[in-house]
Design a protein that fits this description.
Length: about 230
């Protein structure tokens, strides 16, 4: 295990974040199972355990220009997907939720999610760990039919819930491992495309900055159901 991954793993343990958790929502009538491969495209940002949501069109995890929900803010600031997953399961348009493992730079994780025929779309959301409140998201990717694979790439968004002070006391990812303090003074208050790391305090752009896209999602059906 390299220093980057080891430091981040310790930070997750201290924060009480569980990776790779099964998180069933509604029961599945026809048991369609999809393999969701999520790849970290950045050079130096760890992607925290992603929340994978299978849903109908009525569900949306956020709106650009709108305020982040408390659950999304928690995910974007701490990397903990639990409240976000809880919130999703309460939505009548959500068929299933799963949580994957954290993803070091250049690596992938695979999440399997079993859902019902009524779910036509999938969304994936996760934090960029060495930031105040940056997150990557693919929203409303059409689930593939037959043996096809659906592809999408995600940019990084700013949740607007915390100031981008770049101070390690407020940042969970390596090399910081902060205690999840919050600094809301100067937070934008709305979700927008993140403008990266600028070296305001403890972060170094040459080490922690990125260029979009930051995450790739590939979805393949592996079991179940006739064609729609």
């Amino acid at each position: 295990m390299n220093v980057l991954t080891r430091t981040f793993s310790l930070g997750l343990a201290l924060a009480g974040i569980l990776a790779g958790a099964a998180y069933p929502a509604a029961a599945s009538e026809d048991g369609r199972t999809y393999s969701v491969r999520i790849t970290n495209l950045t050079r130096a940002q760890v992607i925290t355990p992603p929340a994978v949501v299978a849903h109908r069109r009525g569900y949306s995890s956020f709106e650009i220009g709108g305020a982040a929900s408390d659950a999304l803010a928690t995910l974007a600031e701490t990397g903990n997907p639990g409240p976000f997953a809880d919130e999703a399961t309460l939505d009548p348009n959500v068929a299933a939720v799963a949580i994957g493992d954290g993803i070091p730079p250049g690596q992938s994780t695979v999440v399997e999610i079993t859902t019902s025929k009524r779910a036509k779309l999938i969304s994936v959301t996760a934090m960029l760990a060495t930031t105040n409140d940056a997150f990557a998201a693919v929203r409303g990717l059409r689930l593939p039919r037959g043996s096809h694979t659906a592809h999408a790439r995600a940019v990084a968004y700013d949740a607007g819930s915390e100031a981008n002070n770049e101070d390690c006391d407020f940042i969970p990812g390596p090399p910081c491992g902060g205690p999840n303090n919050r600094d809301t003074d100067g937070a934008e208050g709305f979700i927008h495309v993140h403008n990266g790391v600028h070296g305001g305090a403890d972060l170094v752009p040459a080490d922690q900055d990125w260029h979009n896209p930051v995450m790739q999602v590939e979805v393949t059906r592996v079991h179940g159901g006739d064609e729609d």
